[in-house]
Structure formats: C-alpha cells, structure tokens
Amino acid sequence: GTAALIWNEIIREKVTNFIMNQSKEQRILNFVLQNAVRGDPCSVVDTIDKYCSQKEWAMNVGNEKGLILDKTVEEANPSVALELGTYCGYSAVRISRLLKAGARLLTVEFNPEFAAIAKQMIEFAGVQDKVKLLEGPSQEIIPQLKKKYEVDTLDFVFLDHWKDRYTPDTILLQECNLLRKGSVLLADNIIFPGAPDFLKYVRNSPHFQCTNYPSHLEYMQVEDAMEKAVFLG
C-alpha cells in the first residue's frame, strides 16, 4: 500500500505535473467539466471516481467507503454538517446531495489551491446553496463556528483531513460545545494511513459510542476502515 501510494502520489504525479504544467487536482476538475453533467451531483461523483480509478489515484473518500458515508449521513439526517478536509470537493458534493431542504454543510480546507478547485467543483455540481467552503486551519475555524457561522450544534462531522488533527479537533469540538447528544462523527482512513490516537481517544471515552466499518483504501485493494463515533453527551 505504501509503495503504491509513493508511486502514485509522488513520482508519477510530479512527472505528469511537469509535463502538463498543471496539478493533478486541476486535471480532475477539467475531466469533470468535460465529462460530467452540470448541476447533477451524482454525475460529478461518478466522474471523479472514474478518473481516479482509471487515470490518476487521488485521496477522495472513493466509491466503496462513499457508500458507508452515504448511509451514515442518511441515518444522521443532519440539519448542520461539518466536513474537515474538502480536498477537490468530492465528499462535499457526495454529502450535500443527501441533505434535506434547508440543511447545510460547512466544509473546511487548509490548502488554498484545493479550496479553489473545490469551489468550482461544488458550483458545477449545483450544490453551492447547501455548501459553505471555509478556508483555513481547522483549529482556527472550529472556535469561530458558533459566532461567525451561526452554528448552534453539529449533527454530523466528517473527519478527512490531517490524521494528527483528528483527536485535537474532536476535543476542540467538545470544548466549544459544538456536539450535542446524538451528534455523529465519521472518520476516514483510520487504518491507512491510520489514526491510532483518535481510535484510542474515542473508544476509551465514556462520551462516545463507536462502530467500526472495515473497507479498503480508495481505488485500491489496501485494507482501510472508517470509524463512527456517536456523542453521548
């Protein structure tokens, strides 16, 4: 798994970027703009999956774990959802297509280049009315959610950013009183590349009830899993 990632993420990507004079993320966006149906979020998701499984690997949640994400969102039926780690906007589009009328998703991205790509992806999918993209570090944005973004509590949180931020950001969500009894956290990549500190924290905490969903790393046959942690108050 590590060798395949090094090949896809570092060697192959750098060579292609140099030859084509654009980033992989820009190539993903271009493929969507040329091949997906504007205003159709399912078409956008399917087109990204097609590109990343057939042409260039990318760190979206992917189609297999995407079904776990879908099921969790549908069960939580959130009015206010938070995503940490927007990347190209794949999961923001995937989540927002399932939101009920009047519900909203706040998605946080640290990398300005990724944020610019995601903004275009979200608009092309036609879900910009449901999604608000917040640019900056999660540890700065989370404490602003109540006052600046009028969030009372979060019904659903998807953690898919830096793995070493999973635990401190979960603690920060608790400290800022952003979780209510029944709030659902779903964390991606808990086996590969792994988030052992997060698993230890939520599984040993009396405030969370955890469920593990074994799966595979996006677009690969590498073992991975997602962890659902329901806040008990």
From TrEMBL:
The gene is Comt. S-adenosyl-L-methionine binds at residues 61, 91, 109, 136-139, 160. This is catechol O-methyltransferase. PANTHER family: CATECHOL O-METHYLTRANSFERASE (PTHR43836:SF3), CATECHOL O-METHYLTRANSFERASE 1-RELATED (PTHR43836). InterPro entries: Catechol_O-MeTrfase_euk, SAM-dependent_MTases_sf, SAM_O-MeTrfase. Its cofactor is Mg(2+). SUPFAM superfamilies: S-adenosyl-L-methionine-dependent methyltransferases (SSF53335). Its EC number is 2.1.1.6. Belongs to the class I-like SAM-binding methyltransferase superfamily. Cation-dependent O-methyltransferase family. Keywords: Catecholamine metabolism, Magnesium, Metal-binding, Methyltransferase, Neurotransmitter degradation, S-adenosyl-L-methionine, Transferase. Transmembrane segments: none annotated. GO terms for cellular component: axon; dendrite; membrane. It is an enzyme of class 2 (transferase). It holds the Pfam family Methyltransf_3. GO terms for molecular function: catechol O-methyltransferase activity; magnesium ion binding. Substrate binds at residues 163, 189, 218. One of its GO terms (biological process) is dopamine metabolic process. Mg(2+) binds at residues 160, 188-189. The lineage of its organism: Eukaryota, Metazoa, Chordata, Craniata, Vertebrata. PROSITE patterns: SAM_OMT_I. Binds 1 Mg(2+) ion per subunit.
